[in-house]
Amino acid sequence: MKKLLVLSWAGTNIGDNAILFAIIELVRKKFGYINIYALVADEKFVKDNYHVTDAVSISEFHKPEKLPKILRFLREADAFIYVGGDTIGGNFRSMLLAGMAVFLGIPIVFCGCGVLPTKYKLMKSFVKIILENARLITVRDEYSERLIREYYCVTKPPVYVTADLAFLLQPPTRNSNIVSNDVKIGINVASYDPMYYFYSSREHHNNALKIITNVCNFLAEKYNVTLIFFPTDKVDYEILKKVANIVGSKKVIVVEQLLKPKDLMTLLSQLNLVVAFRLHALIFAMSVGVPVIAVSYAPKIEALFSSMGQSKYVIPINDLNEGKLLNIINERLRMRGEDIFVNIMRRKAKLNEYLIGKTLQQKRRKAWAFYLFLPSIIPVVMLISTFYSAFRYLRH
User: Fold this and answer.
1) Are 314 and 296 in contact (CB under 8 A)?
2) DSSP 168-222
3) 252-268 pLDDT, tens per residue?
4) Hey, what domains does the chain have and what are their CATH numbers?
5) Among 82, 327, 332, which Cα is nearest to 215's?
6) Which residues is 81 bridged to in the sheet?
7) How many CB atoms lie within 10 A of CB 234?
8) Nearest CA to 332 among 362, 301, 293, 358?
9) What pTM was estimated for this model as a whole?
10) Under a CB-based contact definition with an 8 Å cutoff, are residues 156 and 248 in contact?
11) CB count, 10 Å around CB of 160?
């Protein structure tokens, strides 16, 4: 193993940034220092902040000036690792890149992924073909495993339930010597994501934001609680500031930038409680021993808490109300974090190291296959990507 191609949506949100860091650490621990090419959301960010050999933006891979570099990555890579959130079935471009790897005979591993259904029959068939040709699939929850086996009807590769790779990040030491009577609650909200159209609506989302705002006002005015609003995704900046401004308390603090994963964990370790929409806001808080309450806008939230036996601390977004949220806040403020469950998830995430190490010993198809299929791949990719871009433009 000399060169590895990794696909991750790092660069736009802290969760995927953490996952990319974790997979780089994992493979270099297993194989030593190897060259890593990265297909990511933000090319510049990843080049500046990660020890990768080279990177290309996923959204620009079909452009004439980028495609030759992508093809070089595919030609030189000994294996392809696909990591990240709900992009199996949820994102066409990343699946298209995985399809190119399969077509060119590169061993492909899906590692710690989340899975979503798709409303397009053609996309469903395409995803099934790619997954059937993978060498290994590890998913972060049982919901994703069920979709792979029962919805996409995948039978060939082994599928293992592990855990989100963000659990592999080593948390900072929590300073237990700090004594304060001031209660600090972290608040993380998210903008509506149409990718989860089958689970929650824009109306549910807007209603949830109003409820969160009212609860924050109540906590700030009646109990003098300090509220720390923090983002984990760039798309959430505006909605986060909007909610914080409506609350308007002097004891409101807004984190106005995406912190590095370890810096965010350090911040969260100083809080008494975190109320969050985003999955990785919850994972980071749990990792540093802080009690959490989840507002579930997607299946992955309920799936995580179900696997930890903590479903009572998840409120589905369409079932959220002020009374229920305040009751759980009152209960959770008297509790500590669930370290035992986090340790279990961390051990499950570490299984990926063993599984990947075992699988990637297999060799890729001989180089002549790459050049044999190359003439047919380029026009197909350009055509499909053009149609997809036109479809997105017309839909919006």
Assistant:
1) yes
2) GSPPPPP-TT---S--EEEEE-----GGGTTT--HHHHHHHHHHHHHHHHHHHHH
3) 999 989 999 999 999 99
4) 3-169+346-395 (3.40.50.11720), 184-332 (3.40.50.2000)
5) 327
6) 6, 109
7) 15
8) 293
9) 0.90
10) no
11) 16
Tokens describing residue 286: 């749990």
Query: Residue written as tokens 């669930």?
Result: 338
Per-residue pLDDT tens for 170-180? 888 765 544 45
Q: Round to whole Å and give the CA distance between 96 and 379.
A: 13
Q: Label residue 40 by pLDDT band (50, 70, 90).
A: very high
Which residue bears the tokens 């802290």? 14
Cα(167)–Cα(18) distance, rounded to whole angstroms?
9
Could you give the CA distance from residue 174 to residue 336 in angstroms, rounded to a whole number?
13
Positive or negative, the Cα torsion across 133, 22, 60, 35?
Answer: negative
Q: Could you tell me if 99 and 129 are in contact, meaning their C-beta atoms sit under 8 angstroms apart? A: yes
Burial class (CB in 10 A: 0-12, 13-18, 19+), 26: buried
Of 175, 114, 110, the C-alpha closest to 136 is 110
